[in-house]
Amino acid sequence: MAVADQVPVQSPFHAKSTADEVLDGVDLSGKTAIVTGGYSGIGVETVRALAKKGASVLVPVRSPDKAAAELAGIDGEVHSAPMDLGDLASVQRFAEQAQERFPKLHFLINNAGVMACPETRVGPGWEAQFGVNHMGHFALTKALMPALQNTPGARVVALSSTGHKLSDIRWDDPNYEREDYDKWRAYGQAKTANALFANGLSRRLADTDGAAFSVHPGGIFTPLQRHLPKEEMIAMGWLNEDGELSELAKQGFKTPEQGASTTIWAATSPLLNGKPGVYCENCEIAVQTDPDSPLARYSGVNAHACSDESAERLWEMSERLLDAA
Question: Does domain 19-219+256-324 have CATH number 3.40.50.720?
Answer without folding.
Answer: yes
